[in-house]
Amino acid sequence: MTANSRRPVQAAVAIVGGILLAATSVQADEVADFYKGKTLTIWSGLTPGGSYTAYAMALKDHMKKHLPGNPTIIVGSRLGGSGRVLANWMYNVGPRDGSMFGLIHERMGLEPHVYPKGTKFDGRKMSWIGSMAKQKSVCFTWHTSKVKTFDDAQKMTAIVGTNSSTSTGAVMPRMLNSMAGTKFKIISGYEPQEIFLAMERGELDGLCGYGWGSLKVARPDFIRDKKVNMLLQFSDRSHAELEGKVPVMMDYITNPTDRAMLKLVFGTQEMGRPFVGPPEIPKARFAALRKAFMDTLKDPAFLKDAKKRRLEIDPISGEEVERLVNELYATEKSLATRTAGYRKPAKVGESKRKITWKTVSVSLSKKKGRYVYFMVDGTENRAKLSGRGTKVKIAGKKAKSKMLKAGLMCDVTYPGHHGLAKAITCK
Fold first, then answer.
1. Three state DSSP letters for 372-400
2. Is residue 19 in some structural domain?
3. Binning pLDDT at 50, 70 and 90, where does residue 23 land?
4. How far apart are CA 33 and CA 14, in angstroms?
5. How many angstroms separate the CA atoms of 180 and 161, rounded?
6. CA separation for the pair 143, 199 (Å, rounded)
7. Domain count of the chain?
8. What CA–CA distance (Å, rounded) separates 373 from 388?
9. pTM of the model
10. Among 39, 47, 63, 261, which is most exposed with the fewest C-beta within 10 angstroms?
């Protein structure tokens, strides 16, 4: 090709390159114009004070500078069903313009395939932003328990606590009893933080189905001071920090059908801290959100902050999460149905917690989120509020929990620190 003949080709390439550059610039301008001066909400579908929401708070503090337009970012709360309420709302009601996305439980995206009751969304159509870390759930007992190893759990009874019969803390020991011959006794009805206190009181042996990353955030002293016996990892491969120290569940399962089903269960752990938006977010904004998410997780300032908050960071891109979701949805329905069967209580070895209520007359020191705080015998206590489960009265009249505030003199009926308040009657 002569110099003269190359010139038209070079000119054409330059024109195409200019068009692509201009298109990219237009997209960037469109995204920046949309977010400039706006508020981006990151919704959390899980407990405000829990480890999941801690990830959302860390993201909120650093993502702004990586998103064109530098919007104000806030974290909101839409609780219920480990993110099911949030997922339903995003899919059917919430705005689809890129002004919000949310954080749900690792298994929630697959829930319509596994346990569709109450779900009103299709995980394959959601806009997966990415995940901040993989998740490895563990089983552990208090250091004074007679059950100190997994082999012990196959020989002796260990009483484990959980908040509900469908939570991971009930499902996983139920699976172990069925598949590996363990003798776990499951008691439901505890608030998550109450379980730790019940272990310390000797009321429970342990907790079987709690994230390793969550434990490092919620109770690092349990690990540092060797207050718990680590029995098992719910996985088919070990977490790097537990390699050679704590066995994995798959090593104890021999039945081929059980092993195939567990592949589905453990698959959701790969998206351990998933952030997701509604369907049909405009393409340019969706791409910008995914990029800003991943750029944030590489940001040295963010990583330093995450370390300070004791948050494990092991990111997965939105594209990878989307691919995993589609693969898991393709799993045989019979295996998904078999998995859902373990959400139901077993006929033996399970019971509901018998609550001993106590009433204290106190001055409320503060109300934060779904909790009220007050002093009892020189120690700060908190009680959880529930719209249906907590009866509130102020000056002799029924009231909503949002009317509670610092300074009110109240009789609080609750089971103890971290417990759900049965009634709050204030003057």
1. EEEEECCEEEEEECCCCCCEEEECCEECC
2. no
3. very low
4. 28
5. 19
6. 9
7. 3
8. 19
9. 0.75
10. 39
